[in-house]
C-alpha cells in the first residue's frame, strides 16, 4: 500500500504547543476551512483524546480512532489499539474509497509516533507562543523539506496570523 501517502495535519504554535486541556488554544476559522478541504473524502486517524475533543465523527471521511481502552460504538468509527493498526485500517479504507492519502490529525502522542512514518506534513504555524499541555514533535530540517508556504493574516474569526507550510520527507 506504498502508493497511499501518509500525511500529518496539525496547527502548531511557535513554541510547539498544539493543545491545552483537551482543546486548541486558539480560534482559527480560516484554518478549519483548509483542514476540511485537505481531509474531506480521506480516512482520518486520531487518538481517543482528539476524538473526545471533537465530540463526534468527522463527516465525509472515514474515521479511525486509536484507543487502548473501551471501543467507541458508532457506525462511522473504526477502532484501533495502536498507531500501526490504525494506519493499516486507514490504508484499507483509502483503497476501498479510492483515496490516495490518509490524514493523521492528532493529538500529541499520535504525532510523536507518526512523524517517523509520515510522508508529508501539512503544518499551520500559529504565529504565537502559547501555554499548553500537548505539543508537536520538532520538525527536523535534515528529514523534512519545506515546500509550499502561504502566509495567512489573521482573519475576522482568527486569534492569530498563521503560516501554512507543506513539508515532504527528504529521500536518500
UniProtKB/TrEMBL annotation:
<dbReference type="InterPro" id="IPR012259">
    <property type="entry name" value="DHFR"/>
</dbReference>
<protein>
    <recommendedName>
        <fullName>Dihydrofolate reductase</fullName>
        <ecNumber>1.5.1.3</ecNumber>
    </recommendedName>
</protein>
<dbReference type="InterPro" id="IPR024072">
    <property type="entry name" value="DHFR-like_dom_sf"/>
</dbReference>
<dbReference type="Pfam" id="PF00186">
    <property type="entry name" value="DHFR_1"/>
</dbReference>
<dbReference type="GO" id="GO:0046655">
    <property type="term" value="P:folic acid metabolic process"/>
</dbReference>
<keyword id="KW-0521">NADP</keyword>
<keyword id="KW-0554">One-carbon metabolism</keyword>
<dbReference type="GO" id="GO:0006730">
    <property type="term" value="P:one-carbon metabolic process"/>
</dbReference>
<dbReference type="GO" id="GO:0046452">
    <property type="term" value="P:dihydrofolate metabolic process"/>
</dbReference>
<dbReference type="GO" id="GO:0070401">
    <property type="term" value="F:NADP+ binding"/>
</dbReference>
<comment type="similarity">
    <text>Belongs to the dihydrofolate reductase family.</text>
</comment>
<dbReference type="GO" id="GO:0005829">
    <property type="term" value="C:cytosol"/>
</dbReference>
<feature type="domain" description="DHFR">
    <location>
        <begin position="5"/>
        <end position="169"/>
    </location>
</feature>
<comment type="pathway">
    <text>Cofactor biosynthesis; tetrahydrofolate biosynthesis; 5,6,7,8-tetrahydrofolate from 7,8-dihydrofolate: step 1/1.</text>
</comment>
<keyword id="KW-0560">Oxidoreductase</keyword>
<dbReference type="GO" id="GO:0004146">
    <property type="term" value="F:dihydrofolate reductase activity"/>
</dbReference>
<comment type="function">
    <text>Key enzyme in folate metabolism. Catalyzes an essential reaction for de novo glycine and purine synthesis, and for DNA precursor synthesis.</text>
</comment>
<dbReference type="InterPro" id="IPR001796">
    <property type="entry name" value="DHFR_dom"/>
</dbReference>
<dbReference type="GO" id="GO:0046654">
    <property type="term" value="P:tetrahydrofolate biosynthetic process"/>
</dbReference>
Amino acid at each position: 500500500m506504498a502508493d497511499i501517502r501518509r500525511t500529518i495535519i496539525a496547527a502548531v504554535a511557535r513554541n510547539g504547543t498544539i493543545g491545552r486541556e483537551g482543546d486548541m488554544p486558539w480560534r482559527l476559522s480560516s484554518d478549519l476551512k483548509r483542514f476540511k478541504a485537505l481531509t474531506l473524502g480521506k480516512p482520518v486517524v486520531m487518538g481517543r483524546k482528539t476524538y473526545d475533543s471533537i465530540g463526534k465523527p468527522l463527516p465525509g471521511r472515514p474515521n479511525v480512532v486509536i484507543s487502548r481502552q473501551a471501543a467507541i460504538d458508532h457506525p462511522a468509527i473504526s477502532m484501533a489499539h495502536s498507531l500501526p493498526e490504525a494506519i493499516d485500517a486507514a490504508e484499507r479504507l483509502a483503497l476501498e474509497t479510492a483515496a490516495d492519502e490518509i490524514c493523521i490529525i492528532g493529538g500529541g502522542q499520535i504525532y510523536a509516533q507518526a512523524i517517523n512514518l509520515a510522508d508529508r506534513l501539512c503544518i499551520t504555524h500559529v504565529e504565537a507562543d502559547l501555554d499548553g499541555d500537548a505539543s508537536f514533535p520538532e520538525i527536523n530540517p535534515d528529514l523534512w523539506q519545506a515546500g509550499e508556504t502561504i502566509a495567512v493574516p489573521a482573519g475576522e474569526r482568527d486569534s492569530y496570523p498563521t503560516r501554512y507550510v507543506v513539508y515532504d520527507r527528504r529521500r536518500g
